[in-house]
Amino acid sequence: MAKKMRGKQMEVIITNHSIKRYRERTQAYGQTDDVIEDRLRQAVLRGRKIKERRGDAWEVYGDGIYLIVHYKTDQAKIITCLGSKEYRKWSRRHARVA
């Protein structure tokens, strides 16, 4: 699936790292890679940019999960999955302690 961007199609590239992180951070150990890829793709296509990150990347929130996505003209590459809102809150709280 691709998102239309002013007449163009947005290609979504999903890294193995983002699949691994999604599985770990959402505890989706029973889901296949295909199911996870579809979930990540939909999150990018339906999501919104939250915060700019270095290297032309953005933190994106969509379908209940946070992602880091690198954008090019007609391409979005999912770099990693940061997890759900609850996981992010837990992770940030514990990162400050460590």
Provide a descriptive summary of the structure in words.
There is one protein chain. The protein is an alpha+beta fold and 98 residues long. It has one domain (3-91): YaeB-like fold. Helices cover 39% and strands 41% of the residues. A 6-stranded mixed sheet has the order 1-2-6-5-4-3. Helix 1 (16-26) crosses helix 2 (33-46).
Proportion of residues in helical segments: 25-40%
Radius of gyration: 13 Å
Distance between the termini: 40 Å
Detail the poorly predicted runs: none
Number of helices: 3
Instruction: Describe the strand arrangement of the main beta sheet, using strand numbers.
Output: 1-2-6-5-4-3
Task: Output the CATH class name.
Answer: Alpha Beta
What is the number of beta strands?
6
Number of separate domains: 1
Largest sheet: 6 strands, mixed
Q: What would the CATH topology be?
A: YaeB-like fold
Using the alpha-carbon principal axes, give the shape.
globular
- Portion of residues in beta strands equals 35-45%
- Structural class, from helix and strand content? alpha+beta
Mean pLDDT: 88
CATH architecture: 2-Layer Sandwich
| Element-by-element helix/strand order | EEHHEEEEH
Quick structural gist:
The protein is α+β, with helices and mostly antiparallel strands and 98 residues long.
List keywords for this structure.
98 residues; alpha+beta; 6-stranded mixed β-sheet; 3 helices
List the SSEs and their pairings.
Blueprint: E1 3-5, E2 8-14, H1 16-26, H2 33-46, E3 48-53, E4 57-62, E5 65-72, E6 75-84, H3 85-97
Parallel strand pairs: 2-6
Antiparallel strand pairs: 1-2, 3-4, 4-5, 5-6
